[in-house]
Amino acid sequence: MPENIGNPFTLDFGREPYELIPRSLLTTELVQSFLADHPSRHISIITGVRGSGKTVFMTSVCKRFQQEKGWIVVELNPDRDLLQSLAAKLSSEKTLKEIFTSAKINLSAFGLGLQIEGTDPERDIEVALAKMLSSLNKHHRKVLIAIDEVSITPAMKVFASAFQIFLRQDLPLFLLMTGLYENVRALQDQKTLTFLYRAPRIALTPLNIGRMTDSYARIFGLSPESALEMAKKTKGYSFAFQVLGYFTWEYRNDPARIHSEYKQYLEEYVYEKIWQELSSQDQRVLYGIAKTPDGSVAAIREVLHMSSNEFTPYRSRLIRKGIINGDVYGVVRFELPLFDSFVLENYL
After folding, report:
1. Helix axes 238-250 and 224-232, enclosed angle (nearest 10)
2. What are the boundaries of each domain within the chain?
3. Helices in the chain by DSSP H: which ranges?
4. Which of 2, 201, 221, 310 is deepest in the core (most CB within 10 A)?
């Protein structure tokens, strides 16, 4: 690592950190599925709890496609008019602008500056985009659209409906989105967007503890045993890997302060938001889990006075949200480090 890099870890959400644990296999599988001669899918949706690395993962995928010949990567702001933004970004690139000019696609009515003398301006943005994508197809170009943190908004519903039409027209368009489980589910539940149900969802799992161990050992000069102990404190949670690394770099001779800053930062910047978005019953179930150290479902139900049928829907939803893990039969455990103590401190 260069000496002048400073702290290699970051506390910023979404920004690709200098010290990164890549999800190489997952990235390769997604990229190859889009690059196939006859792609079986044109959409992938990345889900995960806040801080699980959705944005960083999407960024790494986009960088791979930026290196592929013939691919155009367009990142869109979900709070803007997505169709208008897509047309604007495509027409702003010089080489693409030449293609659209040659195809006599007049975009002046949308304020995009592409005016063709003697050609009537396009009046419908969806029609204009279809022509633009068709002209790109003739030049063997493909477009990957990336949208971070989608939610059910009027702009998103309009865009998704148009995207479905573009796919039926066999246009060279691919879509990569990230979102919280509940936001993605709400979008898929829209009657007019049922095609999204067929879109593969990539639920980000914890980072590899072994690779985290190697990273901590290399950066801090730790023994394998000490580095492993440090990595286990994160439970593989992507944001925790950065936060613990950051404060260890800053206060490496003060373990008590490292722990205090680590715990406080996770709570203030992630856990409080997660907690606020949960229903009161979800919070109650998490309290029951936190009160049962061994994670036994039977013991948890006893604490909560819940039958199996009552408990199961909450268990399933909290697993899908990425808050708990139920891989071991009859047991549930928290996926997030120190979240059990946070629950005990905040449940009223």
Report:
1. 120
2. 3-10+226-275, 24-203, 278-346
3. 24-35, 54-66, 82-92, 94-102, 125-138, 154-168, 181-188, 209-220, 224-232, 238-250, 255-266, 272-276, 280-290, 297-304, 308-320, 339-346
4. 201
pLDDT at 198: 78
Name the pairing type of β-strands 43-47 and 173-179: parallel
Among 59, 84, 203, residue whose Cα is nearest residue 144 = 59
Closest CA to 10 of 251, 250, 256: 250
Place of tokens 């030449």: 98
Nearest CA to 294 out of 331, 249, 264 is that of 331
The contacts of residue 299 (CB under 8 Å, 6+ apart) are: 292
- Tokens 């047991």 correspond to 331
Quick check: pTM over 0.70? Answer: yes
pLDDT of residue 114: 65
CATH architecture of 278-346: Orthogonal Bundle (1.10)
Name the stretches of the chain with pLDDT < 50: 1-2
* Contact (Cβ atoms closer than 8 angstroms) between residue 72 and residue 144: yes
Structure confidence at residue 2 (pLDDT): 47
- The distance in angstroms from the start CA to the end CA of the chain is 46
Those residues with Cβ within 8 angstroms of residue 149's Cβ, 6 or more apart along the chain or in another chain: 54, 55, 78, 178, 179, 180, 183
Tell me the β-bridge partners of 73: 144
pLDDT of residue 16: 80
pLDDT at 117: 60
Tell me what percent of the chain is helix, strand and coil, each rounded to the nearest 5: 55, 10, 35
Give pLDDT tens digits for 69-82.
999 999 999 999 99
CATH, range 24-203 = 3.40.50.300
